Every structure is written in structure tokens, then in C-alpha cells.
Amino acid sequence: MNYQPEPFRIKMVEPIRLISKQDRAAAIKSAGYNLFNLKADDVYIDLLTDSGTGSMSQYQWAAMMTGDESYAGAKSYFRFSDVVQEIFGFEYFVPTHQGRAAENILVNILVKPGQFIPSNMHFDTTEGNIRAGKAFPVNLVNENAFDPSNLDPFKGNMDLKKLREFIQTTGPENIPFGSITITNNAGGGQPVSLENIRQVAEIYHEYGILFFIDACRFAENSYFIKQRETGYQNHSILSIAQEIFSYADGAWMSAKKDALVNIGGFLAVRDNNIYQKICNELILKEGFISYGGLAGRDLDAVAVGLQEGLDEDYLAYRTGQTAYLTEKLSSNGIPVMQPAGGHAVYLDAGALLPHIPPHQFPGQTLAVALYLEGAVRGVEIGSVMFAYPDPDTGKMVHPRLELVRLAIPRRVYTQSHLDFVVETAKQVYEQKNNYKGYEFTYAPELLRHFTARFKPL
Ligand code: F0G
Fold it and tell me: Ligand 1 center to residue 427 CA distance, Å?
């Protein structure tokens, strides 16, 4: 498979090093077999997340030098606001320091205990914020999402029938807002089609439910729409994005993804009443409404990054990297989620380690093995991240897929880095029958993957 050349060249380098196998074994042991506890310096290829880990361009760095650090009404705020207005088109917006701050504000002002928030699939912090508000996140993605070999081009789509039935049985009065995540991070970074977004909006609105989009990878999703959805081949990425958000009542975004920055986010709405409540909550928790927990220079970096993230050469290279890694792994027999998603490759740990049951964490086992073999750091997206006790029975409900995500930071690693990841995965694959699972020695109640500790069985 061809590798799409980088549409940039490298002007500044950050050295990385591969520590010895013995040192890796010692490092992961003292990290309690949780890759979040490692020193980043002990990681060679860091695919833990694509969030805040990208490289900024010379234009973003230059824009940071023009940051206006006024407490209120800074020029940087208006530059950010103009770009958000152009792409997303919402009347009101506030910056936040990252995506989860926006989620937290939204839950605090709109959600009452015992209520339900449907989505295709919620990602971890969204789920965590909803559960922390004593409400229930509900995932209604279409069935194809659970079959890693299914080649449906829009595996992130909401199951419209399930959504309608869910609203009818739950009652719209118990659903303060509904959402959709683009692309679907918990389910393989798979895109949602514009047709699906339009229909989801129609259903929510038919029942008088507010529709919010979790927008952090909106540019990658828009690019897939252009590539894969009939009728959009001649549309610009900007116009596709504008159409997506035209159907929603609001959106939140972790700018650490498709806005190509190391920190930042926002929350945007159409309704002035909701905006007023957001402002009050923001001032308490994040900062004044024109900076929302960010420095002025951060706002400028986001303003430039949002526009760069829409560039088609960049998006072709970006999605090309993911497709390249997916194809290389798959052609070596390693089970991966197909088709390639936007920001990450998802290894199917359930299929690779079928002898390890969900409660012994096949995904965690695979993630640790990749570190031990090549100091490659991915993240488990399976029973560590997403198993919760059933509220009625108390029995653990395991997610339907046990995945390990190898997220590709934006504009950071080259083809030879990805080839190194493939070689590492091949070595793990050869030893797959020898691996044993893990058990918790510590786990908090919510968002346990971040701080849990394990011991090998
Ligand atoms: N929504 C989605 C779909 C996300 O992927 C994330 C973060 C958030 C919300 C929260 O944003 O981190 O800025 O507070 N995902 C990262 C990841 C952390 O690794 O996928 P945040």
C-alpha cells in the first residue's frame, strides 16, 4: 500500500529513545501495569492518544506570539470566535480549557439525576461526566459497529430505529439532550454520515430534545463524508462541516484533536438562555467568558489550527497514515477494526487473545505486551475503560468489543515509526498464546483506566 507523503517538512526535532527490554519490564511493573503511569520518556512510540499530542505549525506558533492576555475582551478571543462562527455557525460560544470541561458544564446545567443521554457512543470523559451527574449514558450505535470486519463506510452511524424506540420507552421528558460523537472514538474512530446526522437531528427535534454534537474530530469526519458519501465529492470540507452543525442546537469540542493544538476546547449553543447559564458556570469553574481557562495565546493557536485542520492535503495524509497502519497490521494477520478510522488503529484484542476472558482484560494484556515488546504505548478501550455495574443487579456489564487503540498524534510520526509499530505488533502476535490476563489491585469507581493498578495473573 502506498504511503501518502507528509504535506510538510520538519524544522524542529524532539529526540526519543528506546530503553532496553529489561528497563521496560521494570518500568511497567512499577507503573502497576497501567500505561498511563509510565514516564513518557520510557516510551518510544507514544500512541496513547491523539489528544493534545500533535505538532503545531509555524503559523500557529507565530499566532501565539500575537496572543492578547487581557482578562476580558482580548483580541485573541474575537479571532477564535470569528473562526468558530464561520465553521460551526452557532450564535453563542465560550472557550473551555478542554473538552471535558465543556461536558461538565453541560451536564451541570442541563441534566438531573436519573435522566438519560443517548448518543451513538459516548467516549470516556463524556460517560464519566454523565455518571458523575447520577444520570445514564446510553449508546445506540448501529450493529455493524460491533463487527470489526464489516466494511460499512459509516460504522459510526446511530441506529435510528433504536433511537426512536429508546425515546418512546424512556419518555422525552427524561432526556435533557441527545448527542452524537463524530467520529465515533469508542467504536473505532468511525465516521457518521451526513444523512445520519440529519435524521438523528430530525428525531431528536420531533420529540423536542436538544441535539448536541461531540465535535472533536469533525474535520476527519467531514473528510470521510467527502470521500464516501454520495453527493459530497465536490463539496469543500468547510461546507460539509457547516452543514453538519447546521442541524444541531449546540456542540462541544476538545480542540486538542482536530484544532491541532496542545490544549483548548469550546462549548457553543444557539439558545441565549442556555448560554447565560453556561457563562455563570464557566466563570465559577474555568474563567471569564472570553478566555475560559486558556491563555490568550492558546486561543490564537486554536483559531489558526481549526482552519489548518480543514486542509484537504493534510486530511489526505492524516487519514492515509491510519489506513497505512491498518492495512500493514491486517496483512500480517493481526485482527484490526476495519475499515480504517480517522485518528487511530484499533486492534481487536478480543479476537487476538480469545483465551483471556473480559474480566481478565485482554485489551490491557495486549497493550502491556506492545509496551514490553517495543515500548509502543497504546490504550485499552474495553473492559477496563467501559465495564460498569448494572444499576439494578450490580453485575458487571462488559462492553461488546475489547480493543486496543493506537492513536496517531497529528503531524508527529513518520512512516518508519509506523513500520516499527508493525514489527512490534508482529512480535506480540507470534507469542499470542503465551499471554495471561491481569487483575486489579486498585480501581476507582469512575474513569478507572486512568489510575487503576494491576497485577499479572
Ligand atoms: N469527546 C471525545 C469523543 C473525546 O475523544 C475526548 C477526549 C473528549 C470528548 C474529551 O476531551 O480530553 O479535551 O477533555 N479524548 C481523548 C482521547 C482524551 O484520548 O481520545 P478532552
Answer: 30
Q: Tell me the mean pLDDT in the region 287-305.
A: 98
Reported confidence tier of residue 20, pLDDT bands at 50, 70, 90:
very high
Distance (Å) from CA 408 to ligand 1 centroid: 14
* C-alpha grid cell, residue 138: 446510553
pTM: 0.97
Q: Which tens digit of pLDDT belongs to each residue from 81-123?
A: 999 999 999 999 999 999 999 999 999 999 999 999 999 999 9
Distance 123 CA to ligand 1 centre (A): 7
Q: How many CA atoms lie within 13 A of 222 on its CB side?
A: 26
As its CATH architecture, domain 58-308 has: 3-Layer(aba) Sandwich (3.40)
Tens of pLDDT along 237-265? 999 999 999 999 999 999 999 999 999 99
Residue 100 Cβ contacting ligand 1 at under 6 Å: yes
Mean pLDDT computed over every residue of the chain:
97
Distance between CA atoms of residues 135 and 108, nearest Å? 11
285 closest CA partner among 114, 75, 108, 164: 108
Name the CATH superfamily for 21-50+312-452: Aspartate Aminotransferase, domain 1 (3.90.1150.10)
At 394, the pLDDT band (50, 70, 90 cuts) reads confident
* 204 Cβ below 6 A of ligand 1: no
Tell me, in angstroms, the distance from the centre of ligand 1 to residue 431's CA: 32
Handedness of CA 385, 357, 346, 20 (dihedral sign): positive
Does ligand 1 come within 6 angstroms of the Cβ of 129?
no
Residues of the chain with CATH 3.40.640.10: 58-308
Residue 2 scores a pLDDT above 90: no
Q: Which residues of the chain form CATH 3.90.1150.10?
A: 21-50+312-452
The number of C-alpha atoms within 13 Å of 210 and in the hemisphere containing its C-beta is 19
Question: Is cis: bond before 365, omega within 30 of 0?
Answer: no
The rounded percent of the chain whose pLDDT value lies above 70 is 100
* CA–CA gap between residue 396 and residue 393 (Å, rounded): 9
